[in-house]
Every structure is written in C-alpha cells, then in structure tokens.
Amino acid sequence: MKIKEVILGVTASVAIYKACDLVRRLKDKGYSVTVIQTSESEQLISPLLFQSLSGSKVYRGLFDIPQAWGIEHIALAEKADLILIAPATANIIAKIANGICDDLLTCVVAATRSAVLIAPAMNENMYKNKIMQLNLKKLISLGYNFIGPKAGKLACGKPGIGCLSDIEEIVKRVGDLC
C-alpha cells in the first residue's frame, strides 16, 4: 500500500508552533510529510526543526536551486495526495483566492490536482473582515476544504474566533480527504 504524501504549507501565524505537533502526529499516523515554509514563517521557526520532525527536506523558496533536476513546484504538486495549509494566514488565503502565485506554496497550490485543506489561524477581526469572508466563500465554491478556525484565546489576549483547530481534528480531516 502506497504511503500517502501530505504537503504541509506553513505560514507566519502565531499558531505556527502547533504545526510542529501536527507534523509529528501525521508521521505517527503513517503519512509522509513534506513541509513548504513561507519566508515569513522562517522568522518564527527554523526550517531545521521541521526537517528534523518530518525527516524530509523543507522546501522554502520558489527560486532555490533544486537538488535534482525538476520544476520543483510542479513536482511537489504532483507528488501530493493532499496539500494541507496549517496555520493559514489571511495573506495566504487571499493570495490563493485571487490566483496570486508569488512564492513556492502558492505555486504548488495552483499546480496541484489533489485536495487542498486550509486551516485558518488569525485574529478575529481579520477572520470576520468582509474581504476575508468573500475569499473563503470563493475558495469553498471552487472546491477547497476548510477546517476551523475555532473560538478561544487569541494571540492578542482577547477571546474570539480565529484559533487553529485542534491538531487531532486536523489529522482526522486529513484522513477523510486522503
């Protein structure tokens, strides 16, 4: 039986620390996990940590020199059984909704034929913003899958909706989609 490949897109949300546990839990369930980190997320967690947890190379820049010949964003898109973006910032959601492909993660999403699962994590004001809500509706109408966000204590210290869904719920949803 083929091991399922999850491409995990990691963006610069405060909830990024939960992505480390997500990698571990997905690996425990038998998935192969390849991480794509946005450059902004590298300001919060080093790619070395994700490489250590996943046991795979962490992909970062659109124009990094590949170790083997291939068009990296196409190769990654084709190898994915599922693309999971967790945590997903307002920025990455807006870029995907509007077809902007200016980094490796957005190019991989644009090139994939696999399912895409997006787990938003942001401040409640950003999540409830009218433009964000239009972007979410647009992506849902195009067949993108979402999980969360949930209510809880936000990074600003206030309660509200915008917290990353529980890791176990995300892992279960991955299983449903793979």
Description of the molecule:
It is a single chain. Helix content is 40%, strand content 20%. The chain has 178 residues and is an alpha/beta fold. It has a single domain, classed as Rossmann fold (3-Layer(aba) Sandwich). The chain has a five-stranded parallel beta sheet, with helices on both faces. The protein has a two-stranded antiparallel sheet with strand order 6-7. Helix 1 (17-28) crosses helix 8 and helix 4 (90-97) packs across helix 7. The radius of gyration is 15 Å and the shape is globular. The protein starts with a strand and ends with a helix. The model has no long low-confidence stretch (mean pLDDT 92).
The total of helices stands at 8
Spans where pLDDT lies below 50 across 5 or more residues: none
Radius of gyration: 15 Å
CATH fold description: Rossmann fold
Instruction: Report the CATH superfamily.
Output: Flavin prenyltransferase-like
Average predicted confidence as pLDDT:
92
